[in-house]
Amino acid sequence: MQVDPRGPRFGAAVTTVVLIVVLVTGSWALLAAQAVVFAIATFFGLRYAPYGSVFRVLVRPRLAPPRELEDAAAPRFAQGVGLAFALVGTVGYATGSTWLGIGATALALAAAFLNAVFGFCLGCEMYLIIRRITTRIRSDREVPA
Predict the structure, then answer these.
(1) Number of domains in the chain
(2) Rounded to two decimals, what is the model's pTM?
């Protein structure tokens, strides 16, 4: 599946705002809601992601067509990374380990901010590195000895 790269960037901007609110309020419930948003995109695909749906319905019709599309695999993986950090943060806040909640939320915020402002998707880059490594390992195994 191909996606308009502006969609994940829009989602990262909304996520940035949500995570700032979480850090200011310490709301584990809001962080849990963000985790659900990440989970939907991770397990069901970007087509069903709530922020992606808002982008597709309200924002994209007002923009020129994208210059290029990108494969959805890397942004979907990035949503999974965000889910992991949101879950750790939620557990931290909910169990009274505020330092864990703040730390995990701050790391997720840093990644979302990088994508929203600079178009640098940290999770996407992780995906590409992992893919390169696993492809190299597979190709090394296939070489006859």
Answers:
(1) 1
(2) 0.91
